[in-house]
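Entry for the shared binder. Reason: the reviewer on the internal report wants the predicted structure included alongside the sequence.
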Amino acid sequence: MTLLSALIGLLLVEGTAAIGAGIAVLTGAGSGIGEGYLVGKALEGMARNPEMAGKLRTNMILGCALAETTGIYGLLIAILIMFL
């Protein structure tokens, strides 16, 4: 194996790792869309039924926390791909 082919192989691995990390970070877009939809529907429910606002707010915050984990997992995977 020559030095040139080893260098090309290394660049190919690094390039595909960067592409994979970019795809993993895209999970944040889905997370943001889901959270926006969740908050919008919760506010709509609070406007229609104000006496349920406390319960809706609690469930909305719990749902946002769960939806945010997908974005955090994607970021963690991207960091692992790039640095390991």
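Summary line for the report: The helical segments are 3-25, 27-48, 53-83.
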